[in-house]
Amino acid sequence: MSSVSKNITSALFASELGAPSEVVSAHEVDLGELPETQVEIEMLVSSVNPLDILVITGNAPIPLNNKEFKLSASDENHGKSSINSTVLGTEGVGRVTKIGAKAKKATNGDLE
């Protein structure tokens, strides 16, 4: 019997431009297995800052970078299993908790 590892996290998303109160939503997503070339970072502090607001409202020369995210089973997703959206939060402090086999320049416990 094999077990599937779940890597669930919460994030704020915007799928389209507009007023933050209308286009920003919070979701739990399943990140799946860690790719070999990446590191896992436990976010200690994160925020939505003025740059995020400018991007969300279309007032910055940075487009939304929508990607497909698998929603967790417990996320209230109105029957959807995924969301095509942009993760918000361009700043934060986190700790490296897992390192992919081919990732470079990271040590468990590093603050990034």
From TrEMBL:
Keywords of this entry? NADP, Oxidoreductase
Q: Tell me where the transmembrane regions lie.
A: none
Q: Name one GO biological process term.
A: fatty acid metabolic process
Provide the GO MF annotations for this entry. oxidoreductase activity
InterPro entries of this UniProt entry? GroES-like_sf, Mito_Enoyl-ACP_Reductase
Write out the GO cellular component annotations: mitochondrion
What is this protein's record name? Uncharacterized protein
Q: Which organism encodes this protein? A: Smittium culicis
Which classification does the entry list for the species?
Eukaryota, Fungi, Fungi incertae sedis, Zoopagomycota, Kickxellomycotina
